[in-house]
Write a structure and sequence with these properties.
Elements: E1 2-5, E2 8-11, H1 18-24, E3 32-36, E4 39-40, E5 56-61
Pfam family, one: ThiS
Protein name: Sulfur carrier protein ThiS
InterPro entries: Beta-grasp_dom_sf, Mopterin_synth/thiamin_S_b, Thi_S, ThiS/MoaD-like
């Protein structure tokens, strides 16, 4: 299947979860926020949230600095 990730097409296997997506992007354990179809999904729900062909996913990483 193919989702839209941060505005670009991104292929994924069927049955992929948000948790698996975050891990595949090497962002596990980092300060990130994820929205699916403009709805923020709490990190506690990532393992249960299956992605679908039409999903538009935005991943935002917090980066400190000054």
């Amino acid at each position: 299947m193919q989702i839209e990730l941060n505005g670009k097409p991104h292929p994924l296997p069927d049955g992929f979860t948000l948790e698996q997506l975050v891990a595949s992007l090497e962002l596990s354990g980092k300060a990130v926020a994820v929205a699916v179809n403009r709805q923020v999904v709490p990190a506690q729900q990532w393992a249960q949230r299956l992605l679908a062909e039409t999903d538009k996913v935005d991943v935002v990483r917090a980066i400190g600095g000054g």
